[in-house]
Amino acid sequence: MGRILKNPQSNKSCPIATVQYLISGKWKMIILFHLSEKTRRFNELQRLCKQISQPILAKQLRELEDDGLVHREIYKEVPPRVEYSLTEMGCSFVPVLKTMGEWGKVYINSMEENE
After folding, report:
1. Does residue 22 sit within a domain?
2. Which residue range is the domain that position 65 belongs to?
3. Is residue 36 part of a domain?
4. What is the pTM of this model?
5. Among the listed residues 79, 89, 69, the one whose alpha carbon sits nearest the alpha carbon of residue 25
6. Which residues contact 48 (CB under 8 A, 6 or more apart)?
7. I need a labelling partner for 71 at 20 to 30 A (CA). Which of 2, 65, 104, 112 fits?
8. Based on C-alpha coordinates, what's the Rg of the chain?
9. How many structural domains is the chain composed of?
10. Other C-beta atoms within 10 Å of 76: how many?
């Protein structure tokens, strides 16, 4: 499980570098946010993540899956159905996402007040 870390030593000694590595990518936090709400299919995620291309969404989901944050369930149906959900480790990141969202609101309000 998990991608090979680009600089394993720095990531082992720096938890912030590990988090930065795991969620690096323009869409990963947004994908995690949408999966925190419920299990979703690929096309549903693509609609929710406006402007993301299919190859980029697939790549980001694959990396999140490789890193143990997202689970992909393939149903043997015709046509095949694939659903994505958060793993237990992915769910443990949800409070961090919520805190970041709250901070983002404070920051946006602060910037609006300074205009």
Report:
1. yes
2. 8-113
3. yes
4. 0.85
5. 69
6. 30, 34, 40
7. 104
8. 16
9. 1
10. 6
